[in-house]
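Hi U.,

Before I forget, here's the chain from the pilot set. I'm dumping it here mostly so it's searchable later in email.
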Amino acid sequence: MKLIIQICFILAITIGCSSEQRKTDTKNKAVEQVERARVFDYQPPIPVKGTLYAAIELGALGLNYFIAEIDAQKRWQLINASYGRSNIIYGVNTTREILDKIDEFRKEILTKGVARKNIHILASSSAVRADIISEIKSGLANDNLAINSIDAKTEAEYALIATIPKEFIGESFLVDIGSGNSKIAWVENDDTLNIEIHGSKYFLGDIQDTTVFREVRDALLEVPEKNRHLCFMLGGMIYEFMKDEIEDSENRYFVLGKPSTYPSDNEKLRAGNVIYNALYLEPTYSYIFDSESNFSIGFLLSLEE
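Structure:
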């Protein structure tokens, strides 16, 4: 009888340990149940009698502009966009080249019906850390222009405002993968919380893939589980993954597949894959790329009338 009791006790411990191990494994494994992409067919509201605003965005790698129509209820629609290179992260372009490109963009935007007062120049959170930024600010000041320096926290808030529809705020979080840094943001108790993580060019700093995976995964697990059902994504890296699909479609939203779906045959793509793999975890069942939104649109939405 004692032997039977001892055997049962050992079995109970073994089963219990196995159960705990399964819980631990589930916490850290990728989302295996997502076998096929799900369509996100949300239709954002169209602005009514809106005003045209423009943002010229200086990033660590890009120099772009966006024109959006925004109405009094903060409904918005992307009207026009143009993309260029800043290469600040590589220290390639000169101050004069960047200033000339900004001037070119301003002139082009004016021809599209945007009032001069509604054109804003922004420097992303990664661009403001570059040595060249003070020279750019001085050059713009000579033309009576100012550049709005955006820190990582504010950048994440602007990106979230522009990207996640209000109907999905309570079950969603945002990931904006930039070149110099990336941001995770979500809303909790009416406050926007965010974490800055590695950008897709982390390999320039000789940072190991395993380090990035671990730190991004740790940051992800700080997001409450109730906010991790839908992941809205921004960034040129995600565009690179999906550009063939995007260029053949007029849709705004695109649902990503498994990380193994996308190539990793160069440093840039491999780095993006490492970050996406770290984010690919239960209970998130859809990773949605918004091909039109960005933090610059969020900045324009935050402007007072």
